[in-house]
Amino acid sequence: MEVNVLKWSISCIAGIAVIILYCVFTFTSLVLYPTPYSPASNWLSDLGNSSFNPSGAVLYNTGCILTGIALFPFFLGLYEWFTNETWRKIMLVVTQTIGSLAAFSLIMVGVFSEDFMSLHTTWSSVFFLLNLTVLVLLGATLFTHAHYLKPIAYYGVVVAAINLLFVLAYNTPLFEWFTVFTALGYVGLLVYNMFKAEIKP
Hints:
Number of strands: 0
Radius of gyration: 17 Å
Strand content: under 5%
Distance between the termini: 5 Å
Number of helices: 6
């Protein structure tokens, strides 16, 4: 089977960019962290704190900004899931809108790092709440979609539950890492799902 990347949907390309950008900038910043760093005791945003990570902070914050920018085409490209069902179109448009707001809030997380603690805390809270909303809406919208792979659907439910627990109960650094990277995994699985739906043997 010949794969033409130029024929991939905008969500596929942007979704891959989201994963690569966040991981590359985050782990490069982590390497530059001058003192022992543990996901059990350090928040992800500690990587963007110039006092804690003078050499790597700009990388983490830049990564958040670029990842947020990449999320815009990812969410806008969800129109690929449109069907003739009016309710599904409306739900997807709402999801795209809230997803775009989540993307903007992630950009603001990078702009207002932990060096601006009150603003950073506000934008981080907004991002996780919007991200949770997107996961719930997208899962509900696509669950009965003919091309939505059921294992991915069930994983999406698990990721939404993890995000809910993080927001409501387990607001700890380790659970933040778990929340963020399981969500990135969901983006990757959605990319795979869309790829399988579009590329024919």
